Amino acid sequence: MIDAVGALQPCGIVIVGTGLDRARQERARRKCMERLLWELGQRYVSDVIFERRCRELDVRDRELVAALQGRHAMPHRLQLSWRAPDGEPLLWLADIVAGAASLAEIGEETCWKGLGSSLSIERLPVD
């Protein structure tokens, strides 16, 4: 899968939360989402698709987005949606990239390097 994704020459950014307290995982997710949406806005992205989780957690995500828009912390032109991975196979690409980034964080960089040089990792303290 790494070879197939690498052949697509993906470009983008992976936000990695550091200093994660497992008991505060949702807080870390919100901080990473906020940074990701800001970064995507800087790159003139217009459509963002998040993987659907459960109803309650998706509502929390939408509340975060509303708060970010209210603070002008993300461009209003970003169109966000939540979809199930079985209905949006391109979400699998993000999982593959995230897995390769996670391995790179622990020193196993083979998969990350196989994705090419147009992806970057941004480390964000979330403690």
Structural write-up:
The protein is an alpha/beta fold and about 130 residues long. It has one domain. About 45% of the residues lie in helices and about 20% in strands. The chain has five helices and four strands; from the N terminus they run H-E-H-E-H-E-H-H-E. Strands 1-4 form a two-stranded parallel sheet. A two-stranded parallel sheet has the order 2-3. Helix 3 links the parallel strand 2 and strand 3. The chain is globular. The termini are far apart. About 10% of the residues are buried. The model has no long low-confidence stretch (mean pLDDT about 95).
Radius of gyration, in angstroms, nearest whole number: 15 Å
The span between the termini is: 33 Å
Count of domain modules: 1
Mean pLDDT: 94
Biggest sheet features: 2 strands, parallel
Number of helices, counting only DSSP H or I runs of 4 residues or more? 5
Tally of extended strands?
A: 4
Taken from the alpha-carbon principal axes, the silhouette is: globular
Low-confidence stretches: none
**Helix and strand sequence:** HEHEHEHHE
Structural class: alpha/beta
- Walk across the major sheet and give the strand order: 1-4
Strand-residue proportion: 15-25%
Helix content: 40-55%
